[in-house]
Amino acid sequence: MTQKQFSSVWDAIEDTPAEAENMKLRSSLMIALTAHIENRNLSQTAAAELFGVTQPRVSDLIRGKIDRFSLDTLVNMAVAAGMQVALQVGSEAA
Questions:
Q1: Of 39, 11, 83, which is closest to residue 74 (Cα–Cα)?
Q2: What is the pLDDT along the chain (94 residues), one digit of tens a residue?
Q3: Which pTM value belongs to this model?
Q4: How many other C-beta atoms are found inside a 10 Å radius of the C-beta of residue 65?
Q5: pLDDT of residue 10
Q6: What is the Cα–Cα distance from 92 to 73, expressed in whole angstroms?
Q7: Which InterPro entries does the record cross-reference, listed alphabetically (predicted)?
Q8: pLDDT given at position 4
Q9: Contact criterion met (CB below 8 Å) for 63 and 44
Q10: Which pLDDT does position 16 carry in this prediction?
Q11: Which is nearest to 19 in space by CA: 29, 33, 4, 8?
Q12: Are 58 and 44 in contact (CB under 8 A)?
């Protein structure tokens, strides 16, 4: 029996390609925001103030609670922190 290969874990666990892409984007933003916190040695309270959210939201971010964040929310947090968010769209490779 051959096993199906997936390009990412999200492709394997999400029901549709659209859901998988959304999760990939959210995951990337969460990783970038967490790195921003770590690189600047911010406390959760300072990060919350910078991102315009509450400290418990920053805790959820750091703990990887991806289901608690929409793409919009993560983009807004990144922009509030002075980060630039770019999206690249292309066609699927054949």
A1: 83
A2: 666 665 665 555 556 778 888 888 999 999 999 999 999 999 999 999 999 999 999 999 999 999 999 999 999 999 999 999 998 888 776 4
A3: 0.81
A4: 12
A5: 55
A6: 27
A7: Cro/C1-type_HTH (IPR001387), HigA2-like_HTH (IPR039554), Lambda_DNA-bd_dom_sf (IPR010982)
A8: 67
A9: no
A10: 76
A11: 8
A12: yes
For CA atoms 4, 6, 10, 15, the dihedral sign is negative
5/79 Cα distance (integer angstroms): 35
Give the whole-angstrom CA distance, residue 39 versus residue 33. 10
Q: Which long-range contacts (CB under 8 A, 24 or more apart) does 76-80 make?
A: 76/52, 77/29, 77/33, 77/51, 77/52, 77/53, 78/29, 78/32, 78/33, 78/36, 80/50, 80/51, 80/52
At residue 27, φ and ψ (nearest 5 deg) are -60, -45
